[in-house]
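Before the break, one more example. Copy the sequence into your notebook; we will annotate it together after we see the structure.
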Amino acid sequence: MILAIILVSYFMILLDNSIIFTALPTIHTAMEYSTTGLSWVQDAYTLVFGGLLLLGARAGDLLGRRQVFVFGLAVFAVASVLVGAAQTGWWLIAARALQGIGAAIVAPSALSLLTASFPEGRERAKAVALYGATAGIGASLGMVIGGALADWVSWRAGFFINLPIGAAMIMLAPRFLPETSRSPGRFDLTGAISATLGVGAVVFAIIHSAEAGWTSPLTITILVAGAVMVVVLIAGERRAPQPIMPLRLFDSRRRGGAYVARLCTSAR
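Here is what the structure looks like once it is written out:
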């Protein structure tokens, strides 16, 4: 049950990350979007998700990962309903950004709960393998399901189905998921701000480059600003007593290799 709750929740997040792609032509017609506005239906989710990921992970450390996991699921489920009910362009984009907040909370908490629930060795290896497989399946099925629902029912249906799934996981999580111990301390404010602004700026620059190109002054300015904030993050984490991103995590070759592999597969 622990594995099922975590994988279903993670699958739901990944599904909505890709389900929008095949629904975009229908959304374009129904909402009368411009090309730029249409791109932000997906980009708002990606930008907020990437920018708040470290902050979501730190919240789980300080407040308890199960509690944060359930809260993130509630945010994501409510945001999904708002996406499905959107009547205007700004409403849809704002709701997608809210989905990104929920996803940034759920994703790191799900993986942390997974590793905390299964002992190191064969059981954890199997659980993590299934977690990784869920990522690929969710991303692939999202396009198929999104296209099918857009053609047969409505593009909104792909988001409304998250409400019963999210509600079921919220009810099951307190019963089956173990609560992790809360780490004493406080938020690394400097790290949280620099991480959120730095990652958010880099993601925004990449998104903007698709429209304006890499030579655009705005793209270059935002990319440089993001790089500066990342440097500030690294410098600050060296001195912070309770860093939001402990640099010792990169000392392990195994862990560092996994990070690089994840980066390459995500950017393909």
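Residues 69 and 154 are 29 Å apart (CA to CA). The radius of gyration is 19 Å. Try to locate both features in your own notes.
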